[in-house]
Amino acid sequence: MESESRRRRVARKMMEHGDSMLSECTLQLRSRQFTKMWKRDADEHPAAPREHSADDSTEKLVDGACADDAGTPGAEREETGIREQEVGVKEEENERRESTCVSHGSISVMGRQRVMEDAVMVVPEAVTWGLSSYDFFAVYDGHGGSSVADLCRDRMHKLLSRETEECSPDRGGGGLVDWSKVMAACFQKMDEEVRLSGGDSQDIASVTEVDGRSSPEATVGCTAVVAVVGKEEIVVANCGDSRAVLCRGDDAVPLSRDHKPDRPDERNRIEAAGGSVINWNGSRVLGVLATSRSIGDRYLEPYVISVPEVTVNKRTEVDNFLVIASDGLWDVVSSEVACLVVKRCLEGRIRWRSERECSCNRAADGAAMLIELAIARGSKDNISVIVVDLKKSSSSSS
């Protein structure tokens, strides 16, 4: 009884003081009792997280090599309403190239939604350039259905690989990769595939218009944040309101900017094209879509565009890790708090599971901890998180 009262006091303080209490309370998030009690106090409808048991092997993350089957999105399963995509660790050196394959973990859950519209993709060495290789990490947040997100998951990394190949001297390129142009071309072709054929997705039929009326597929879309990690640089392309954050030293460094309709430059662009931003349960393009850029969503052209914003960042010795996630996380957890939680997981100061169950993939534990935190804070969306441990990369490639 005393323990229950103490947990209630801690939960009440954290709800009142928010991020300032995180350092005292993060460790308790792994307690399923604490998480359920917190949601009950806040009168939230309970989500459907898995029940944790020391003897339940199904709760563990999949930790394995991503080698021959690295192009697949990882293990997927349905458990108590939660679909997860989990990608393990690969720490192998390529004798021909400077391998950058890093320790990473990813999880994608339905949360409080009834359908899963997020998709996650991790492809080690997806892009090769000379003697160097780049690992591919992406989160796709679908809306109106999962078909566009699923198509992006299956196709985006392949399109990016082709675009970089076009820059090689033997293909007539200049021998240097202009990442802004490459990413823009990749996203444009991805958008065209959604528009014209539906590609590999079984859910998207061919896009047609009858009597001037758009087919239902025109209302389906997704945001996309893509991170390409090389030995010397990190390239991020973002289209929408998912986000990539770099932990550099003790600082949370944003590698992307959310494309929200009320962002001044985005609002100006929308209005210049003849559209409008209407406050309807938050700022929305024409009162409909809560993001100003996405792939798909033909019915909102030209106001919603698929052009990504691209950043290229040189890696430093104090770069710790990347957090790439959908807005199901960022709507309730700040970049600074996310970096704090993951950093403590990687340092072994907090654990998502008991020490006996620990898989030694602390990046996966960090992703799981962020999922727990987002659910406990009342996230109502699908939540997808990738954590990329850059320190592992530095040590393995040296």
UniProtKB/TrEMBL annotation:
Keywords: Hydrolase, Magnesium, Manganese, Metal-binding, Protein phosphatase. Transmembrane segments: none annotated. Residues 103-390 form the PPM-type phosphatase domain. Residues 38-103 are annotated as: Disordered. It is an enzyme of class 3 (hydrolase). It holds the Pfam family PP2C. GO terms for molecular function: metal ion binding; protein serine/threonine phosphatase activity. SUPFAM superfamilies: PP2C-like. Its cofactor is Mn(2+); Mg(2+). Its EC number is 3.1.3.16. Residues 38-62, 75-99 have a biased composition (Basic and acidic residues). InterPro entries: PP2C (IPR015655), PP2C_BS (IPR000222), PPM-type-like_dom_sf (IPR036457), PPM-type_phosphatase-like_dom (IPR001932). Belongs to the PP2C family. This is protein-serine/threonine phosphatase. It comes from Punica granatum (Pomegranate). The lineage of its organism: Eukaryota, Viridiplantae, Streptophyta, Embryophyta, Tracheophyta.
